[in-house]
Amino acid sequence: MSAVDAGGPVIRVRGLRNQFGAQVVHENLDLDVRRGEILGVVGGSGSGKSVLMRSIIGLNRPAAGEVSLFGEDVTAMAQDERARIDRRSGVLFQYGALFSSLTVAENVEAPMRELRSLPAPLMARLAALKLALAGLPASAGAKFPSQLSGGMVKRAALARALALDPELLFLDEPTAGLDPIGAAAFDQLILTLRDALGLTVFLITHDLDTLYTICDRVAVLSQRRVLAIDTLDAVAQHPDPWIQDYFHGPRGRAAQSSAQRHGL
Ligand SMILES: Nc1ncnc2c1ncn2[C@@H]1O[C@H](COP(=O)(O)OP(=O)(O)OP(=O)(O)O)[C@@H](O)[C@H]1O
């Protein structure tokens, strides 16, 4: 951690506006993500969760507003300067987004190759370490993504996101498509890695169990902005109809009672 970013939020978004043609997705959106927290980002389909993540990681240029990472305003940063900041983040995209023509180990090495400074044997050793961190057997490294189960693809994508020892991890619906047991195991892995590596985690999810078991705070995207951001219990009290339906509908009640049964 540099002296500059000690203490302040790791992600700070102010007055964000995103628009595609006539469709305004975000308007005057503010968000702070605190160091070391797992922030769950929820919202209806099309509420702009992925666009928000893409705006923060620099894949989407906002129409207006400011994004700061680690205390530095990245909105108007030159590309090489931005690359220096980007190396401190890892991203797990929805569906994993692995290169299908590369082996799993080569996928994990891909971000290291971009640095052009590491010898091949070291990259191979680091890739093996990242795969182990993500809970994959060593034998997975030589396989191609098409030879892996859905859960293993997610773990391989997580290993790749961890390739450059990030401080900040972005996860876009990491448990989507996993069976409940696989999803719960993945949740625990994220929690363990956050604790062991001191990560800050921006986590988009539809999975209420994930919110109940691993998120420190929850941000709800609605009406083009972050409508509520707080602990899950506090957010669940918000009178907004979508929030009430989401947290207190049948699925919300089931996730809550499951969390209570497990003493969370
Ligand atoms: N590149 C783009 N061009 C045009 N419209 C876009 C683009 N990217 C996103 N959108 C639109 O912006 C809105 C928000 O999309 P986004 O993918 O962020 O939603 P989301 O909250 O992540 O949804 P979901 O939960 O279904 O994944 C959608 O209406 C989408 O169609």
Descriptive account of the structure:
There is one protein chain. This protein has 264 residues and is α/β, with parallel strands linked by helices. It is built from 10 helices and 10 strands. The strands form 2 sheets. A 6-stranded mixed beta sheet has the order 6-7-8-3-9-10, sandwiched between helices. Strands 2-1-4-5 form a 4-stranded antiparallel beta sheet, covered by helices on one side. α6 (180-197) links the parallel β7 (168-172) and β8 (200-204).
Q: Unreliable segments (pLDDT under 50, ≥5 consecutive)?
A: none
Q: Characterize the overall form.
A: globular
Lateral arrangement of strands in the main beta sheet = 6-7-8-3-9-10
Report the portion of residues in β strands. 15-25%
Mean residue pLDDT? 90
The helix-and-strand class reads: alpha/beta
What small-molecule ligands were found?
A: adenosine-5'-triphosphate
- Could you describe the largest sheet, including whether it forms a barrel? 6 strands, mixed
> Got a strand count?
10
What's the short version?
This protein is an alpha/beta fold and about 260 residues long.
Task: List its salient traits.
ABC_transporter-like_ATP-bd, globular, 10 helices, alpha/beta, binds adenosine-5'-triphosphate, six-stranded mixed sheet, ATP-binding cassette domain-containing protein, 264 residues, 23% strand, P-loop_NTPase, four-stranded antiparallel sheet
Ordered list of secondary-structure elements with their pairings:
Blueprint: E1 11-20, E2 23-33, E3 38-43, H1 49-57, E4 64-69, E5 72-73, H2 79-86, E6 89-92, H3 104-115, H4 120-133, H5 150-161, E7 168-172, H6 180-197, E8 200-204, H7 208-214, E9 217-222, E10 225-230, H8 232-235, H9 241-248, H10 250-261
Parallel strand pairs: 3-8, 3-9, 6-7, 7-8
Antiparallel strand pairs: 1-2, 1-4, 4-5, 9-10
Helix pairs in contact: 3-4, 3-5, 4-5, 6-7, 7-10, 9-10
Adenosine-5'-triphosphate (ATP) binds next to α1.
InterPro entries: AAA+_ATPase, ABC_transporter-like_ATP-bd, P-loop_NTPase
GO molecular function, one term: ATP hydrolysis activity
Protein name: ATP-binding cassette domain-containing protein
